[in-house]
Amino acid sequence: MNRAAKLLPTTIRGFSTKAEGKKTCLYDLHKKHKGNLVNFAGYEMPVQYADLSIKDSTIHTRKYVSIFDVSHMLQTHITGKDRVAFIESLTTADVEGLKPNTGTLSVFTNEKGGIKDDLIVTKTDQDFIYMVTNAGCIDKDLPYLQENAAAWRSKGKDVQITTLDGRGLVAVQGPEMAKVLDTDIDLSKLTFMNTAVGKVFGIDGCRVTRCGYTGEDGVEISVDPAQAATLVERLLAAKESQVRLAGLGARDALRLEAGLCLYGNDIDENTTPIEAGLAFVVAKKRRETLGFPGAEHIVEQLAKKSWKKRRVGLVAEGGRAARGHLPLNAASPFGPATVGFVTSGCPSPCLGKNIAMGYVDTPYAKEGTVLDVDFGTKQTKVTVAKMPFLKTNYYTGKKN
Asked: Cα–Cα distance between 18 and 62 in angstroms, integer?
């Protein structure tokens, strides 16, 4: 295993030590700034940079501003007069009910109500829906969209799928993001999950969306790939705050502290949004209109509260950090009984404790329940805890 791979937290799946992978438009910038690269979801991506440890990079993001390359994610435009109904046939989102230039977290579901992928779908004020889905699911998401669009067109419907191949996507995250972002977009009016197009550091045609996957205030900027490195260098040169590059390691710790799921670890096709504690992604209107795969099963779970397992947060004051797949045991009259399993875990740089999330049988999902993480030869006690582990700081336009 190469040095960069050793730095990658064990919670992250989808990486390998193969030397070659696809490159984002910021690959040369990563090399220039001494990023430690691994093959992640088929792309050569930085785990961290030479100037900061993963721990220090995580803390830095929560204090100042960090830049993440997320250009490996799939950006898509869905066009045609039937585009809203089309996306609603595949996801749990109420796209029709979204205001223009507003987005929502949603999921593709399968016929059993399991999660095929999580995504952000945005209803723009132009003639398309803008969607961002996970890099690790491109090989199944894109054919899924294209095949379903073709089926709709065969029935006389008007819908097309256009991928924004190679386009840059830069996440700028941290409480001082708004101080450093030089843009003609009024950030005071751009609230969480809203989007606008404008100039950023003099670069035209940037789509700026107030979102991110760290729990902090931030934006994701979709930018012409030829201008992406220029955008990042200008951010790094900003004097209004301390701006640093960050990689997969810090991103994973940040999202876990914020209680956010990683597809393939914490959610998958065998887990429904309800079991995952993501009932909010099933829009209220869609619980009535249904029409997406597995809708009846999901709505039945909601109505009857009939789920058998539940995603929970886990905190340990000491011992080893839990990692994916490890069993969670509870005491019983017959000895330890396995009641769940860990899906993600790491030492929290900002809390100074080991944190994790996982699934447990519903009777063990109550906050305060003490369980054992089974490492085989040793066990570590963890306590079921409320998520997010740290208070989130999304910008809603309202004072906290």
From this structure: 32
